[in-house]
Design brief:
The chain is an alpha+beta fold and about 140 residues long. It has 3 helices and 10 strands. The protein has one domain. The strands form 2 sheets. Strands 1, 2, 3, 4 and 5 form a 5-stranded antiparallel beta sheet that branches. Strands 6, 7, 8, 9 and 10 form a 5-stranded antiparallel beta sheet that branches.
Length: about 140
Amino acid sequence: MLSIENSLKAIETVRNALKLFTPGPVIVHRTPEGIHVDVPILYMDFAVDRVHFDPSTMRPSPKGNPVHSQVQVAEDEIRKRMEETLEEVWVVEACEYRKPERCWIVPVAWKSFIIMHVRVSADGEKIVPDYPLTEEIRRHIVRY
């Protein structure tokens, strides 16, 4: 059942889980427009979302704005920068409910950018992994 109480639980669940979020292996997409970098965020060895990363500024990009760059990608440096970024993220005090997925979507911000959306079960108690992203990591990245 949807309720304000469950939405507040979902927000608290993500807030409590933040300290366990870690950057996964950097995923580099080479496109005609340039290089696009995603950094999966892991929780208990499962991906929860991907953060778009701008290698030219060495910063995350806002959700919905994947950056294409022409610069060389230093995956170790990007991962280190994302570790630092995860120490500065915070949970936005609001969430939305997505009926098709049957879960709460809790935004997580860095500075003034929303950089990821974390899915939480309808009862507000469990983080819901991004299974397709988890599979992408396991399929394309041999070791991380």
